[in-house]
Amino acid sequence: MTTLAAAFEQAAAQDRAALVGYLPAGFPSVPGAIEAALAMADAGADVIELGLPYSDPLIDGPVIQNAVHRALTGGVRVADVLATVQAIAASGVPVLVMTYWNPVDRYGVGAFARDLAAAGGSGMITPDLTPEEAGDWLAAAATYRLAPVFLAAPSSSRERLELITSVCGGFVYAASLMGVTGARDAVGSQAADLVGRVREVTSLPVAVGLGVSNGRQAAQVASFADGVIVGSAFVNRLLAAPDLASGVAGVRELAAELARGVRQARPAPAAIVADQRR
Q1: Cis (ω within 30 of 0) for the bond into 28?
Q2: Which of 4, 62, 127, 224 is most buried per CB count within 10 Å?
Q3: What separation in angstroms does the CA of 186 have from each of 27, 122, 200, 207, 211?
Q4: Cα atoms in the 13 Å half-sphere on the side-chain side of 35
Q5: Which residue, among 79, 15, 7, has the nearest Cα to 44 in the 3D structure?
Q6: Is the pLDDT of residue 196 over 80?
Q7: How confident is the model over 246-268, as a mean pLDDT?
Q8: Which residues contact 205 (CB under 8 A, 6 or more apart)?
Q9: What is the signed CA dihedral for 123, 127, 131, 137, rounded to 10 degrees?
């Protein structure tokens, strides 16, 4: 069993959702990103999603765009991302790289998969890669036992969900809304419906991302999903901090709040269905 699968299995055994925390590599610095990610894991994150900075982040909102721009301006490279993966994975927490496809294509698909696996990475989330165009990546992922994670959207048809889930590994990333990333006052109302539709076509865990920013929202999503993905809220803690120590403390504090949220008692299935129909 991979560390990623084990993380979701352990959370399920505890009758809760897994907490997946996102940070971009190289922000506020390469060592700073490592320190923040380790603090996040220590405070309760089950899986770390590490962003590979890219100059054209199509689905990322202004918060992550700002952090990614600073990382690129600071000179972060793919080698730094892999070194960050290695440092985090050495602590025992599963690490997924979230990346747009162009940097991987330029690096070489097979070479990237090889080096990601060698660094201890568990897999890769590819928001702009469609299953139809993923043949090389799927082959490389199988060779190096990496999880290929694709996104399902509220607009996805059943046929599309069947295709997406047939090539996913580890879990399915369910986008709670249409649009760019960012913390919001409320999680998209389509999230629970999307999770239900995904579960009709796969037995893989389903994790919900886009919009979660606090423990209350984490508990809400954890009531119907297998995983809760949080990104912009963590990045905000680093952006708003006057120094690295304060930023890391903020990340740790938020991770602890979110971890408490996903550990709240889940309602019975009938109660969830009734709530969704209101």
Answers
A1: yes
A2: 4
A3: 27, 30, 25, 17, 7
A4: 15
A5: 7
A6: yes
A7: 90
A8: 8, 12, 18, 170, 171, 172, 226, 227
A9: -40
Nearest partner of 45 among 267, 266, 260, judged by Cα: 260
**How many of the other CB atoms lie within 10 Å of CB of 48?**
25
Using the predicted structure, report yes or no on whether residue 183 has a pLDDT greater than 70.
no
Burial class (CB in 10 A: 0-12, 13-18, 19+), 268: exposed
Place of tokens 């999903």: 225
Distance CA 252, CA 256 (A): 6
Give the catalytic positions in this structure: 49, 60
Q: So what CATH class is 3-276?
A: alpha beta
Listing DSSP states for 199-211 in one string gives: HTT--S-EEEESS
pLDDT digits (tens, 9 = 90+) for 158-173: 999 999 999 999 999 9
Checking if the pLDDT of 218 tops 70, the result is yes
Could you state, in order of their start, the residue ranges of all structural domains in the chain? 3-276
